[in-house]
Amino acid sequence: MTDDQNGARPGPLNHLADVAGLKVGNAHEPAVRTGVTVILADQPVTAAVDVCGGAPGTREAHALKPGGLVGAVDAIVLAGGSVYGLGAADGVTAALGAQGRGYKLRDGAPPAPIVAAAILFDLANGGDKAWGDEPPYAQLGRAALEAAQAGGDTALGSVGAGHGARAGALQGGLGSASAVTADGITVAALAAVNSFGSVVAPDGKTFWAAPYELDAEFGGGGPAALTAAPDQWPHSKRDPGARENTTICVVATDAILTNVEAERVAVMARAGLARAIRPVFAPFDGDVIFALATGKIAAPEPRAFTVARIGALAADCLARAVARGVHEAARAAAP
């Protein structure tokens, strides 16, 4: 370990918004028990994706694969609502296009914003889903975008895309965490946690992510009770339905990365979900991780080593974000 690797600490907000060039906005509808989170870039940023669950729901994911024409986004949308939630990106795309954001294709043609999206299933959580042919997601997407453009929203727990989520047998939520290295690289993660698997050990209170916790950010319980027998995850969902479970995530850095390097960061960040949720990546989970690089600072040489550092920090931040989302949802619900 080099001296530059010592002493990474949470950023000032301990949130994805610590990454320069990104803002986050949330909107939710309590009566429907659903919501949307928008991650807005101040200009198109390098983006990649890792689809690691067996039942994903995404938009523009293939456009971010290496070798494609795009490899960058104006915004990422995370939404509840399963397939209906993909409509949130329509609202965000229309609003950004009206503001002049996006690729300019031909004279007279509207610009084409690149808005990638992933959704989770919250349709069976007891909210009023009798929306007929007018799902609320396009409007929720616009509202979340407006919140981001108004200065951002760092609320966690039962907000935005995590409003109607369940994390195993517990209330799910939206979580975030960040780390700033001694040599000035910022890495952060945000997750809407609606997992089949449990985020806590068999004791029901110790987070699997406990070894990675910083500054008692999700309760400070420590890792002493992290023991489990094979095939033992009592706080997972007991009757998981196909396509009904998902943790949808964004990891980001302010370093300059290529699309290929960003994809490697997304792949490495997958380890963070494995540290925080047990079991994970199941056939009926739709886990998706977007990786963003806002390009505000140069990546130190050797580049491959820096990419490895960023990927490792992204995994740590993602594990912390999962636990923070559930912790904050539980804290808000406590009497």
Briefly characterize the structure.
The protein has 335 residues and is α+β, with helices and mostly antiparallel strands.
Summarize this structure as a short list of keywords or feature phrases.
335 residues; alpha+beta; two-stranded antiparallel sheet; globular
CATH level 4 superfamily: L-amino peptidase D-ALA esterase/amidase
Number of domains: 1
Number of strands: 11
**Quick check: average pLDDT?**
92
Given as residue ranges, the uncertain stretches (5+ residues, pLDDT < 50) are: 1-5
Work out the strand percent. 15-25%
> What fold name goes in the CATH topology slot?
L-amino peptidase D-ALA esterase/amidase
Radius of gyration: 18 Å
Shape: globular
SSE topology string: EEEEHEHEEEEEHEH
Report the span from N to C terminus: 45 Å
Task: Please give a structural write-up.
By secondary structure, this protein is of the alpha+beta class. It has one domain: L-amino peptidase D-ALA esterase/amidase (4-Layer Sandwich). 22% of the residues lie in helices and 24% in strands. The protein contains 4 helices and 11 strands; from the N terminus they run E-E-E-E-H-E-H-E-E-E-E-E-H-E-H. It has helices at residues 87-98, 137-149, 259-276, 303-333, and strands at residues 22-29, 34-51, 58-59, 72-79, 115-119, 166-167, 170-171, 173-180, 186-194, 246-255, 288-297. Strands 1, 2, 3, 4, 5, 8, 9, 10 and 11 form a 9-stranded mixed sheet that branches. A hairpin with a 5-residue loop joins strand 8 (173-180) and strand 9. Helix 1 packs across helix 2 (137-149) and helix 3 (259-276) crosses helix 4. The protein is globular and about 65 Å long. The relative contact order is 0.21. The model is unreliable at 1-5 (pLDDT under 50).
